[in-house]
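Much of what follows relies on a compact textual record of a protein's fold. An example makes this concrete, so a full record is given next.
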Amino acid sequence: MTVTIRNMLAQMSGFSVGTLPFQYLGCPIFQGKPKCIHFEPIVDHIKVKLATWKGVLLCIMGRVQLVKSIVHDMLAYSFHIYRWHVCLLHMLDRWIKFFVWSGDIHTRKICTVSWKYVCCPWENGGLNLRSRRAINASLLLNLSWKLFCQESQCSTLFQQQFISCGTPRSRYFKASIWTGVKEFFNMVTENSVWIIGTGEKNQYLA
């Protein structure tokens, strides 16, 4: 976009011209492939929260509820649109595990129950926690299905930009969201079917 067009759009819309990156609802907005540096402010904020809570004064269920109600919400917006690096997700899971068991993110406590069983649903004997990696993947899969299968202005624009003849374009895009979404393209298409209707409208069913 040229400077002339950008200034004209700013004048017509009444908005001032901004620069990337910036924060929106606690979520970083940037251009290009997501990097660890983009999410470090969120990670640092979570670390401060976990470190300042008096976890030793709470029972395990109290600490679990704090993680569910606050930590998960702090990650919700960015998890919906960005593919986080595995190293950051592993770090967050380690802090949460230490906090739940000992009340301190720096204190490792020897436990007789594997963490993967703790993350199981209530009906399977777990504490209904979820690994950050699984949450990030599931939310991006949901976003991929919406962009590829639903009929909306956003999905139409997305498909015109990134999809050609039913397959992802091979060239590189300087798009932060596309990096995570393209990983789930094959999963969405392989697990979707067409519904035969009246002929007026076709749609996917995942």
